[in-house]
Design brief:
The chain has 154 residues and is an alpha+beta fold. Helix content is 18%, strand content 32%. The chain starts with a helix and ends with a helix.
């Protein structure tokens, strides 16, 4: 829920380009391709004309405790929520995706803007990547990663 609220608050128009995860790219990959790649999901939930397919438990994708793919009415993946299995820290995120954005104009290379959710949890928004990284209450370890289009991430 916190992820949904945070992304809804930051939605603005941008080109539909997103950082892929495991070969699945929001705004490009179809649901059928996800199922072909990862097998039948553990759970499928339909809501308001959209569908969420989830891989958890024994069907969890390697390296995750859970992965959810939000699919629009046309069958296109519009968002991926990944809950990592291993502990990932802030330093690993900065090394993998980029440092904090400097003051002033945003550089051409990916960088994050530090944000807070409605319940005052920290997350990093990488607008150029269509990526939001939500941290646990300790503010140091990753709770989840959300891959979406730049349009939705901004």
């Amino acid at each position: 829920m916190r992820t949904l609220i945070a992304l809804a608050v930051i939605a603005v128009a941008f080109p539909a380009v997103a950082k892929p995860w495991q070969g699945v790219e929001p705004g490009v990959t179809k649901k059928d391709e996800v199922v072909k790649k990862f097998g039948e999901p553990s759970r499928t939930v339909a809501q308001e004309g959209k569908e969420t397919i989830a891989y958890l438990g024994k069907e969890a994708i390697k390296g995750t405790s859970q992965a959810q793919f939000k699919v629009d009415a046309s069958g296109l993946v519009e968002r991926i929520d990944v809950f990592p299995g291993p502990v990932i820290d802030k330093e690993t995120i900065e090394t993998s995706y980029g440092p904090a954005c400097p003051s002033g104009p945003v550089p051409a290379t990916p960088c994050y803007q530090r944000k807070l959710t409605d319940d005052f949890r920290t997350y990093f928004l990488y607008p150029k990547l269509g990526l939001a990284i939500f941290f646990n209450e300790d503010g140091k370890t990753v709770q989840s990663l959300t891959f979406t289009t730049q349009k939705a991430a901004k």
